[in-house]
Amino acid sequence: MQTLAQLRAGQLQGITRLQLVEELTEFPREIFDLADSLEILDLSNNQLSTLPEDLHRLSRLRILFASNNRFEYLPEALGRCANLEMIGFKANQIRTVTAAALPPQTRWLILTDNHIETLPAAMGDLPRLQKLALAGNRLTALPESMANCRNLELVRLSANQLQALPAWLLGLPKLTWLAFAGNPFSHTLVDPHADVATVANVTLHDIKLAEKLGEGASGVIYRGDWLNQAMVAATGSSQIAVKLFKGEVTSDGYPADELDCCLTTGDHPSLIKVVAHISQKDQLGLVMELIPPGFSNLGLPPSLATCTRDTFHADTQFSLDDVTKITLQLADAMAHMHTKQVSHGDVYAHNIMVNQQMNLLFGDFGAASNLRNLSTVERLAMEAIEVRALGCLIEDLLAYVSGSVGPEYYKKLSAIKDECMQLDVTQRPCFAEVKKAIGALLKGK
Question: Would you indicate the residue range of the signal peptide (predicted)?
């Protein structure tokens, strides 16, 4: 992070990335002095409501973030920026998005947690659009023109007022990660604080929270200890992990929907086990078994460069057996979820934990959606979308395997990956078929 004082003193010449958090109410004109080099501009967490009309003078600007400000409309100055492809205006008060505000080369558009009711038909004129986050708005429909956005891969539509799931959306050839919980057409929670018969309902008075273990879009995870001895007896351990949901709306939707989807899914050997839930009026949460020692994240989240695809440490290596074992366990877990009529929405390596034996634990239901109110055709399409996510995961892992090791084995696993990633949604296998194919591959190697 840089300072306004450094900028005004001319100390930032030649930088490619600028981040200013200074309670700004106006765009500092000195930023234009960096026009020859500036590619990434982060003005999030200020008090801005406008951008200058001549923003396009920042001719190298590729990425602009302005979340947590006071914008009431998406600035039309954005649309005139020749190289701008990533735009983030989360948590403003945006009501208006016009065609003029959309650069034609947009790949990444984040408008989560605003007040948007409609989007322009020009959304369909964004052929490069890959990542679109619209959760927590007031949308009642999406423009039909968006059927032309055939490179869309990640879409977040949760916590809106959508009356239906568009048929064209489910048929997009590259759609891989979709979340839509908390809309009128989807599963409606009558009382998110109601008790769930199959899983104990506890309060924070039953738990002693310890250190933070991690944090995601929807909540913070802590290590904890039961203070309630009955729960120690019921769960077989005094030590637990506790996920406390953050607020009313996250980047993926409502916490109550995540809680519902997680509890609806139930137990599976490859899913992080939920032993209780917290449904207080002022706090929702999940109580889970503590992940055993020796488990670590399979991958890292996407970067600005990869946009929608996971990243990995440079020294990452997998064997073909590793990849096959991971795929088999994940396909089985996903088959279980879809049998329970729940989609995950975030099938990524960074949401998977493995140990040295490649035993897998999968979690984070922040982008999950309940499919109960969908038609059979729509549910099958949702499964096909998530099968593509499994294919992307296999592809990512295979990039860290030498193809010269067991070339025939590698070829067969690659063929399964290709089946999962077919552009025709209706031709992809279901998870049960993927599981069968991987099982046969393991037996025949």
Answer: none
DSSP state for residue 160 in the 8-state scheme: S
Distance CA(418)–CA(386), nearest Å, equals 14
Mean pLDDT rounded to a whole number for the chain:
94
> 357-411: per-residue pLDDT in tens?
999 999 889 899 999 999 999 999 999 999 999 999 999 999 999 767 788 999 9
CA-to-CA distance for 213 and 224, rounded, in angstroms? 10
Q: What is the DSSP string of 279-319?
A: EETTEEEEEEEPPPTT-EESSB---TTTTTS-B--TT----
Cβ atoms of 241 and 213 closer than 8 Å: yes
Is residue 415 within 8 A of residue 440, CB to CB? The reply is: no
With beta carbons less than 8 A apart as the criterion, state whether 342 and 280 touch: no
Model's pTM, two decimal places? Answer: 0.94
* Residue 417, marked binder: no
Q: Are 384 and 432 in contact (CB under 8 A)?
A: no
Tell me the C-alpha distance between 304 and 281, whole Å.
37
Residue 9's SS3 state is coil
Which domains can be identified in the chain, with CATH numbers? 200-289 (3.30.200.20), 296-444 (1.10.510.10)
